[in-house]
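tool_log.txt
---
The assistant was asked to compare two proteins side by side. It first ran the structure predictor on the initial sequence, then on the second. Raw inputs and outputs are pasted verbatim so the downstream comparison step can read them without reformatting.
(1)
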Amino acid sequence: MKSPLFLSFLIIINFFPFVLTSQNFGVDTKKTLIIAHRGASGTAPENTLSAVKKAMDAGADIIEIDVHLTKDRQLVVMHDETVDRTTNGTGKIKDLTLKEIKALDAGEWFSKEFGGEIAPTLEEVMKLIAGKHKLLIEIKPTWTGDFETEKQVLGYVNAFNAASWCIIQSFDNKVLENVRALDKSIEIHKLAILNIPVLPLHYDNALRWGSFLKYKQWSSLSVYHKGLNKNKIRRIKDREQKAFAWTVNDFKDMDEMIAMGVDGIITDFPERLKIRLRLK
């Protein structure tokens, strides 16, 4: 999400005032869900059990994580395609076995306090949460090309009898279509970044035709917060979808999203958002 193209979009949108000022629109803030981004990733290394525990302690309604398939086809909880940024190792996840990834330190990059932290599997995260919070699982595209990630994620959801507390999301439309083909009932969220001003285009994991508002088939649209405004949120909610905003860390941005009536806010700092909601 930090590609030159994406950064160019961020520059462009600064010249288009489509994010309204923070104004109270009569929103019931009690209904604003707190969604911990990669766990409480502002206070613990992202996508680790420590981050999940901190999100639970902070009272997050939903905990979001990312999953990738390893070389030996195991589901590991990490965001990037490589282990380089969030461990002391190097290489693509698809080229490493789970055992090799488990041998890496996934915490010291964040701070010495978390030295020795190990990247968890989806199974380990689900055992920890155990239905006490909802789990939002972002599925990265399967490198095997045979629905393997989608199949395995749904296999764990079934094994834990977790359909009531698990949600699937992705930027990738094919992943979402695969999940729906495999499971007709699980809640699915579509991730998007923003509409391109003036042009009939939007950006998710690629540049695509039309507005992201065209995705009417999913339970929720989860959009980069700079790509939302009051009108877009209203249009999403009028058709009985939920509108989520990501990744919202500053108090000003939190206030703006709350005022405009989003259903949920994805944040690295769930404890900070909880305090903000109490002040409303």
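(2)
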Amino acid sequence: MKPILQVSGMHTYYGRSHILFDVALSVYEGETVCLMGRNGAGKTTTFRSLAGLTPPRAGEVVFKGKPCTRLPAYRMARLGLGFVPEDRRILGPLTVKENLELGKVPGRKGPWTMSRVLDQFPVLRDMPHRLGGTLSGGEQQMLTIARALMGNPDLLLLDEPSEGLAPVIVAELRRLLLQLKQMGTTILLSEQNIRFALAVTDRVFIIDKGHIVYSGGIDDFRRNTELQQKYLSV
């Protein structure tokens, strides 16, 4: 079985600053994969490189069998890549429903309609006319994920989804991701919260100073406390 996403030899820069070094990772359809690492390790840059926001200077990104290393973000979205950024990017002056409408991607069809998304996110269903800027951090995170699903992605990228959220919201987010997983959604997320990652993930990659330093199944990662201590400061 070929992976839905295959990355090899990826190098990414910000100006003259070399951030990612020879990054390689893979995601198979229907699984949840977590990219872990400390702050500044390169997680967000990896996601921006995959989403077409910060194109790599070298290497190869193959999505659904198509080389797309330097495609712009809008073309990656049309191919079926949904991106939930760390800073959420909710449009505050627009309502919840209007923010969701903006998540639709021209030419993409699938099971995620407005009614289904709202059914999946009860907190949003009860406030369709609330302005995005008046939502709590947890509500905004749910809205950002729901907006990405409106594009009917084949792969959902979640950058630090639990960061800054209260424990009760993190628990709700965990429930949501497990439910999406049961529905067959393919997810690549970045995280620092090990407990959260252990609850939702099938495989783990660890990035440190722009290098992938570990890849393995979740059971191996769970047992390897020395690895966790070395790269994640647990």
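---
observation on (2): Residues 5 and 107 are 21 Å apart (CA to CA). The chain is about 35% helix and 25% strand.
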